[in-house]
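Notebook, bench 3.
Goal today: get a predicted structure for Putative HhH-GPD family protein from Kribbella caucasensis so we can plan the truncation constructs. The sequence was checked against the plasmid map this morning, with no discrepancies at the termini. Length recorded as 192 residues. Pasting the sequence as submitted so the record is complete.
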Amino acid sequence: MAGTLYITGDKAADGLLNKDGTALLIGMLLDQQVPMEWAFGGPAKLKERLGHLDARKIAAMDVDDFVAVCAEKPSIHRFPGAMGKRIHQVCVVLADEYGGKATNIWKGVDTGAELYRRLHALPGYGEEKSRIFVAILAKTQGVRPEGWQDAAGKFGDDIPRSVADIDGPESLAKVREWKKAQKAAKRDKPVS
């Protein structure tokens, strides 16, 4: 796996996301209520602290010990306790169901619907996060099972609206503009 995602502004952190499926899955998991760069930089911080991003080893750790690693300053997320527990839960699923490798979630999957189903079954992967991750895999990682665009929903189109559309500084700026415009439109909506 060697993708084109550009999000953190740190070449090593982006490189990790593009070559390690577990890092990418954890980065997307962390992408809520914090800036994208912070969320997707989390896997590199974890790897630096743990010396690995091995889902089996993380799953075998005591959850409180793992949360303590997530909470070290600077923490991996605004809510390191809750997100640390969720990362641990995802790693348990990876260890139990996917041989400890996130790439096994999408390896050999035949349809976008099946890929979406597998992602949506993960702790912390709701409908939108699962759809965005399908789009990330297709647009930046070359994983394009039949029907991926339907599974990705609106995130499968050409409008630069999510992390799935970021492959450099220019596209990062376009996604930020789109998000800013969406927030402004919501604020300007008359209350009925």
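The chain has eleven helices and no strands. The chain has one domain: 11-181.
Flagging this for group meeting.
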